[in-house]
Amino acid sequence: MSAQPLWLRCEKKEFERRAALTPTTAKKLLDAGFDIYVERDEQRIFDDSEYEAVGAKLVEHNSWPKAAANIPIIGLKELPVSDAPLIHTHIQFAHCYKRQAGWSSVLARFNKGGGTLYDLEFLQDANGRRVAAFGYHAGFAGAAAGALAYAAQKKGDTLGQLHPYANEEAMITAVKEALGGSGKGVKALVIGALGRCGRGAVDLFKKIGLDEDDILKWDMAETAKGGPFQEILDVDIFVNCIYLNTPIPHFLDKKQINAAGKNRRLSVVVDVSCDTTNPHNPIPIYNINTTFSHPTVPVDVGPGNPPLSVISIDHLPTLLPREASEQFSSDLLPSLLEFPNRQTAPVWLNAEKLFRQKLAEAVEAEGL
Ligand SMILES: NC(=O)c1ccc[n+]([C@@H]2O[C@H](COP(=O)([O-])OP(=O)(O)OC[C@H]3O[C@@H](n4cnc5c(N)ncnc54)[C@H](O)[C@@H]3O)[C@@H](O)[C@H]2O)c1
């Protein structure tokens, strides 16, 4: 049987430095007999030479449209908007299965070109659990951004532009420095603490020096009594990491914040879950997604009351591109190794079935 080819494309989104394949996972695929092509890319956190060193074939930047039709293309984020037909098999996050803006025109490109989409968000194991996700580093980076915003607020400032960190160590050092050496004395509450994002947030708080007792870890059991929760107002930083799938009472609302007046300790809310425009958003105190250039949005707290800001960045793992890529790619690796048997391997078979179903819905919606 001939070698299974796989083509790592560059990412075209601003600030995106993560990669679906890392030099480590590329090497493991090469060892298993894959042919790995890697587009040259200066934006990626890993140098081209790191891929070359493990034996991958380097190809021109953004040249995947010219790749042979039988070579599957792997990437992370959406492709730039276009109506060009897609002839290849693409493995990526496409964000077009939940009727997001423009969903049917993305799928129409596959319909036109005859290509196939395996959406990374929907690759699941036998228990219905995602095989690879970025949650841990989203929570970790979100908690770091929250601590930086808290430190800025204490100095009467607003947190400025955030930049991806070279590695976890650099992030932890920067956060500790902003807090004057350590996070000791800061109090935080993480809701959704048993999930991927929540575990990441808790770990960051531990690593920057918060006392164990000052990290409140809540999940389903603690919120079962129903919000709004006074406990949130009594910490410095609140990080929301829940996976919202049913309407729930608000965790926090403006009435409660205004009523607390000057007796509120809470300074920063980090909404990692980012259900910003969801009508059931449990934190209805803000209504925009913030960005790396403007990481915080102020909450209207009433005159004379201490400030409160929200961070609602929806691509937090980008702040830690190296570790986030390594973890994601190594979690994806067992499924990639099964890719040559995608006609029978459930993880790929189910993902293709879902694609065919969504494609049919898009064909209908677009009147094709
Ligand atoms: N902002 C970002 O950059 C970013 C990146 C990745 C994921 N996310 C989002 O973060 C959210 C969480 O993702 P995850 O991978 O950690 O999910 P997960 O399923 O691993 O964890 C979610 C946790 O929330 C808990 N939970 C759910 N409802 C709750 C409630 N009402 N009260 C208390 N706890 C509750 C669950 O028990 C679970 O422990 C998702 O919405 C995801 O889309 C955001």
Fourth-level CATH superfamily of the largest domain: NAD(P)-binding Rossmann-like Domain
H/I helix tally: 11
Radius of gyration: 22 Å
Please give the share of residues in helix. Answer: 25-40%
Total number of strands: 12
CATH architecture of the largest domain: 3-Layer(aba) Sandwich
The structure class reads alpha/beta
CA distance, first residue to last residue: 38 Å
Global mean pLDDT: 96
Low-pLDDT stretches are: none
Spell the H/E element sequence. EHEHEEEHEHHEHEHHEHEEEHH
Task: Characterize the structure shown.
It is globular, with a radius of gyration of 22 Å. The protein has 2 domains: 4-121 and 320-366, 3-Layer(aba) Sandwich (Rossmann fold), CATH 3.40.50.720; 134-319, 3-Layer(aba) Sandwich (Rossmann fold). By secondary structure, the chain is α/β, with parallel strands linked by helices. The two termini are 38 Å apart. It has helices at residues 23-31, 48-53, 103-113, 135-154, 168-178, 196-207, 220-223, 230-233, 254-260, 321-337, 346-366; strands spanning 5-8, 35-39, 57-59, 73-74, 89-92, 116-119, 188-191, 215-218, 237-240, 268-271, 297-298, 309-311. The chain has a 6-stranded parallel β-sheet. Strands 8-7-9-10-12-11 form a 6-stranded mixed β-sheet. Residues 133-135, 138, 191-192, 194-198, 219-220, 223, 241-243, 248, 272-274, 313-317 line the site of nicotinamide-adenine-dinucleotide.
Question: TL;DR of this structure?
Answer:
The chain is of the alpha/beta class. 33% of the residues lie in helices and 12% in strands.
